[in-house]
Each structure stands twice: as C-alpha cells, then as structure tokens.
Amino acid sequence: MRPHGGRLINRFVSSHEGADLLARAAELPRIALDERAAADAELIATGTLSPLSGFVRKAEYLSVIQDMRLPGGLVFSMLERKDELGVGGRITLARRTIARQFPQYHRDPREVRALIAERGWRRTVAFQTRNPVLKRQP
C-alpha cells in the first residue's frame, strides 16, 4: 500500500538519537505548543499526515486553501489549524507528544502497514472522522 505522496514520512528519531537531540535543543529558543499542535507534530512525525514532513509554510497553506493541493500538485485538503502566528518547516520528534489512553490499540502508520502485510490482507478499509478526537471538556 503506497502512502499518499508515494513515501511514508518518518520524522521520529530513536530514543538514543532523541536524547542527543533533546540535549542540543535545550540551548535553542522554545516555542510552546498547545495540546492540539503537539498532537499535530506527532501525526506529522509518524507519517500519519504524509507527505508532510513538518508544519506547512505560508505558500503551502495558501495552496491547500485555494486549490486543495500542495504546491507540487498533490491533492491535500487536511491542514493544521491557522493561528495568528505560524511557524512552519520540517520537524523532528524526539519523544511522543500524545498520551496513550489505549496503548494496546495504538498503531503508527508504519506498524499498521506491517500488520496488514503480516496478515496477508489484500483489502483494507479506513475511516477518518471529520474532526479529530479531542479530550472532552468538563
């Protein structure tokens, strides 16, 4: 099964590389991400939003809003939300950002593809909700 865009993105580094990356990042300026943006970062890093390898920049954002395509012509209609201040570009994730409420059922795209191949499935069906599942507000 080919990922959208032809290549499954993986911007999540191993624990050893992650520790080194976090140590180097400690010296850099920080941008605080809210829960939704942190979740988006993990979805990008694990390939769930392939072919994105980072938060979209202005040209990408405008292209998707106007044409429902990335600048290269690939159909893409799902975007992270637009805030007043936007920071875009490639990301690398050193640790998980989404708490696993049901870890026995959670699978990243690479793991799902491996399970499909392991089980010899020739057809699969996927369903994506219109809105992401968010923590319920009290």
Descriptive notes:
There is one protein chain. The chain starts with 14 loop residues before the first helix and ends in a 19-residue tail after the last helix. It has one domain (15-119). It is 31% helix and 3% strand. With 138 residues, it is mainly α. Strands 1-2 form a two-stranded antiparallel sheet.
Q: SSE layout and pairings?
A:
Layout: H1 15-25, H2 35-45, E1 54-55, H3 58-67, E2 89-90, H4 109-119
Antiparallel strand pairs: 1-2
Structural class: mainly alpha
Instruction: Give the domain tally.
Output: 1
Give the SSE order as H and E letters.
HHEHEH
Strand content: under 5%
| Helical proportion, percent range | 25-40%
Average pLDDT level: 86
What gross morphology would you assign?
globular
Count of individual beta strands: 2
Strand order of the largest sheet: 1-2
The helix count comes to 4
**Terminus-to-terminus distance:** 40 Å
Radius of gyration: 16 Å
By oligomeric state, this entry counts as single chain
Q: Tell me about the biggest sheet?
A: 2 strands, antiparallel
Q: What is this structure, in a nutshell?
A:
The protein is an all-alpha fold. The protein has helices at 15-25, 35-45, 58-67, 109-119, and strands at 54-55, 89-90.
Essential attributes:
2 strands; 138 residues; 4 helices; mainly alpha; globular
